[in-house]
Amino acid sequence: MTTVGEVSRPSRVADPDEAISAEELQLAARNHGIPLEALRYDVTPAGLHYLLIHYDIPDVDPATHTLTVDGAVARPLALDLAALRERPRVTHRVTLECAGNGRALLHPRPVSQPWLVEAVGNAEWTGTPLAPLLREAGVAPEAVDVVFTGADHGVERGVEQDYQRALPVADALREEVLLAYEMNGAPLLPQHGAPLRLIVPGWYGMAHVKWLRGITVSTEEFTGYQNAVAYRLRRDADDPGEPVTRIEPRALVRPPGFPDFMSRTRMLRPGPCTVDGRAWSGHAPVMSVEVTTDGGANWAPAMLDAAGGDWSWRRWRFEWSPEPGRYVLGARATDASGRTQPVEQPWNRGGFANNLVQRVEVVVVAE
Ligand SMILES: Nc1nc2c(c(=O)[nH]1)N[C@H]1C(S)=C(S)[C@@H](COP(=O)(O)O)O[C@H]1N2
Ligand SMILES: [Mo]
């Protein structure tokens, strides 16, 4: 890693009343979220899926792009897209969520991509499983980490780098991990990693390396920026922290009724309506979803539709018949591991994994 300018300061935390800056807005305009009404689709159309791009979308020619597999392997490999497409083909429906989802709602606010709750999508990713390829290369018994390198390049808090993320060998060898070349049945779009990306079902977005060009097996723990400096759950700047890994459970409400242009407060007519949304967890299947209409004072169980696969979000719905008045809707998912969503914000220095229950303001108005 080359360092440029100030070396690796931890991300800044905003002052209590500090507004979102033009720099944060610049990030937000590049990296859009899912419009929440798109929670209606089982599979998120590619253009409505959230985006997170640390640097620039790199210029990669699919005709000449090569994936190399090297490091602590018996037989280094180099494969072009045609060779990858000839290998066994698998499709997984996978909920992807950025680890920074919920960051801008934290108090105080860690200054970075200012997500509210919309950094999520559920797409069908097609590609070839990684594990057989690693076995063909022959992973050394003393291997510790597998490092994935993207074709994109930039500087982050003073550290110049290619985007790189490592997975522990056991996680890289899990059968659901894919080298994906299609999203929703079409070749990957440039912004989603064309022509090749990693898909690590159940893990937060940072693990799913886009524009994948290299896989290096290492006998030492990877100390690159995205593992060792970013994406750690730290209490304060001096805390080495714990790595961010799998997605914490979350349910989102598809906002009912129609919005006010500026505030996005929802307007709804009185009477029976179905409130619905999606719920997911990267640890274990979602087992239950509860709904509140009074900002968390009372909870009622929601109905769950059939599961959409091991790695996909699940639809939930709730029959509601409100009288005129003001309401604050939210939903809370619990998974089979017993994990659920907190009622107090899970604050950390980087603003990761904030799965605090959503607040959807609804005004029920007579016609
Ligand atoms: N090479 C590369 N891969 C990357 C990133 C990146 O900036 N560069 N961003 C990561 C992060 S933080 C997220 S949340 C997901 C977003 O994937 P998407 O844009 O396809 O939704 O990609 C991940 N893979
Ligand atoms: Mo992310």
From TrEMBL:
Spans through the membrane: none
Required cofactor names: Mo-molybdopterin
Oxidoreductase molybdopterin-binding domain sequence ranges: 54-225
Source superkingdom: Bacteria
An example Gene Ontology molecular-function term: molybdenum ion binding
InterPro entries the UniProt entry points to: Ig_E-set, MoCF_OxRdtse_dimer, Mopterin_OxRdtase_euk, OxRdtase_Mopterin-bd_dom, OxRdtase_Mopterin-bd_sf
Keyword tags: Metal-binding, Molybdenum, Oxidoreductase
Protein name (Swiss-Prot/TrEMBL): Sulfoxide reductase catalytic subunit YedY
